[in-house]
Write a structure and sequence with these properties.
Number of strands: 16
CATH superfamily of the largest domain: FAD/NAD(P)-binding domain
Strand content: 15-25%
Distance between the termini: 59 Å
Number of domains: 3
Radius of gyration: 23 Å
CATH class of the largest domain: Alpha Beta
CATH architecture of the largest domain: 3-Layer(bba) Sandwich
Length: 492
């Protein structure tokens, strides 16, 4: 284990002793150093599934929270998809009142320990932070997510479950159990409606359990949040595939549900449609991560999950899922893992923190390259990827510079495994079995501003509407739809 965590803790204790009880002016707050996140040593963590970021100490959390300028405009709140009162929770945290801080967060979010770990705060609540702008460095904004994580970890077991209003006699079905569904179910149950959550897998949590690796999000934390749903009375039924076990319309027409929320996510992997994608040793990131995370393939002493054992791995893509797949491959024993991405590091959509961690752990980044063919041996197994080099041209609709292929730049990358991580489409089952649901060209549900679909009494949110998005954006959609469902149920 690296000595970095203890050094950071000792420095924080000393600094907090100097700050504690001192009235802090805005100028004082500008001078408080941003608190670094303690982490496992890169070479050690690359071969274990323990959490990479170890979390703030109490002193670090208070120091970081004390950096907040408590500005009246609170632009951070408008940057939060669920509108947490960020200055208020940071104010409590700065005074060491961590339970009160968590109480403020819980007014808007049931998943602070999760969001504090995996949400891209740097492009959401921290992006408009006045402190970051004052310092002319957005990377020096208040580390809101890190403080959120600390108060959730420190106090979640100390607060009672959210209060539930008297029974309304109304029943709501929630399909899926990922972030959007968790947020919708929590809000609807707290309003007094009976809520039943239907999950296709044997374990609830959606992308939180099958998609995000243990080293970024320990599953005990997801289990704790799911248990909170059960404590407030949400009925969770697993191994129940709506569209197969039961048709969506049957929930309304035969089972007595008054409304339905669909949060089934984006579970259909995309492939590149290049030669060789049918070879043994080619996987979608979705399958690879599900085997590793939900089915715990890394724990070969206690899990018998089949997983392809690799020595040299190529991961195609540059998003967070690509980082998760590459870093998981290292932990599953691969000797060399390469990210193949057709733009530069600057254009890479993955979080900077995830890219930094992958680089530290030894993942190779082959940028300005893309796979154009996968080659196999005489047994139909992957032996290499043929890549083509690129240069960057003008910006496209995404705001990133377009990759332009360089003819004649073909090269071979010898690998035995290829993981395709270029995104997912929406789960197709419900639209196939419920033709009344309107979808767009990408297969995502078409909804109005409150999440209502083309089918009466059916709302939707999260990745099934947005395509692959963040946990907190999905939660924001779940909460908005829940508010609309509550208004509807109050009127019928």
């Amino acid at each position: 284990m690296s000595v970095l965590p203890s050094l950071l803790h000792d420095e924080a204790v000393k600094l907090w002793a100097e700050l504690e009880g001192k009235p802090l002016s805005p100028k004082d707050r500008l001078g408080i150093p941003m608190q670094e996140m303690p982490a496992q040593d890169p070479l050690e963590r690359a071969r274990n599934m323990g959490e990479v970021a170890l979390g703030y100490s109490a002193e670090q959390a208070q120091i970081e929270a004390s950096r907040c300028l408590q500005c009246k405009t609170a632009p951070c709140v408008s940057g939060c998809p669920v509108s947490i009162d960020i200055p208020r929770f940071l104010g409590f945290a700065a005074r060491g009142q961590f339970q009160d801080a968590l109480g403020v967060i819980r007014e808007a979010s049931l998943l602070p320990a999760i969001c504090g770990r995996v949400c891209p705060q740097e492009s959401q609540c921290q992006a408009p932070c006045t402190l970051g702008k004052s310092l002319k460095n957005p990377l020096k904004a208040v580390a809101i997510g890190r403080v959120e994580r600390y108060v959730a970890d420190a106090c979640s077991d100390q607060l009672p479950p959210p209060a539930v209003k008297p029974d309304t006699g109304k029943k709501v079905a929630v399909i899926g159990s990922g972030p959007a569904s968790i947020a919708a179910a929590a809000d609807l149950r707290q309003q007094g409606h009976a809520v039943t959550m239907f999950e296709a897998f044997h374990k609830p949590g959606g992308v939180l359990v099958y998609g995000i690796p243990e080293f970024r999000l320990p599953k005990r934390i997801v289990d704790r949040e799911i248990e909170t749903l059960r404590q407030i009375g949400v009925d969770i039924q697993t191994n129940f595939l709506v569209g197969r076990t039961r048709k969506l319309k049957d929930l309304l027409d035969k089972d007595g549900f008054d409304a339905v929320f669909v949060g089934t996510g984006a579970g259909l992997p995309k492939f590149m449609k290049i030669e060789g994608e049918n070879l043994v040793g080619v996987f979608s990131a979705n399958e690879y991560l599900t085997r590793c995370n939900l089915m715990k393939a890394y724990d070969d002493q206690r899990a018998s999950t089949p997983i392809y054992r690799s020595k040299r791995v190529a991961v195609l893509g540059g998003g967070n899922v690509a980082m998760d797949a590459a870093r998981s491959a290292l932990r599953l024993g691969a000797e060399e893992v390469s990210i193949v991405y057709r733009r530069s590091l600057e254009e890479m959509p993955a979080r900077q923190e995830e890219v930094h961690h992958a680089l530290e752990e030894g993942v190779r980044f082959l940028t300005l390259k893309n796979a154009q063919k996968i080659l196999g041996d005489d047994q139909g197994r992957v032996r290499a990827v043929e890549t083509l080099s690129y240069e960057l041209g003008e910006k496209d609709a995404s705001g990133r510079r377009s990759p332009i292929a360089l003819p004649g730049s073909e090269a071979l990358l010898e690998v035995d495994t290829v993981i395709v991580a270029i995104g997912n489409d929406s789960n197709p089952l419900l639209r196939q079995t419920t033709p009344e649901l309107e979808v767009n060209k990408n297969g995502n549900f078409v909804v109005d501003e409150e999440g209502l679909t083309s089918l009466p009494k059916v709302w939707a949110g999260g990745d099934i509407v947005l395509g692959a998005a963040t946990v907190i954006l999905a939660m924001g959609q779940g909460r908005k739809a829940a508010a609309a469902i509550h208004r509807f149920l109050s009127e019928v």
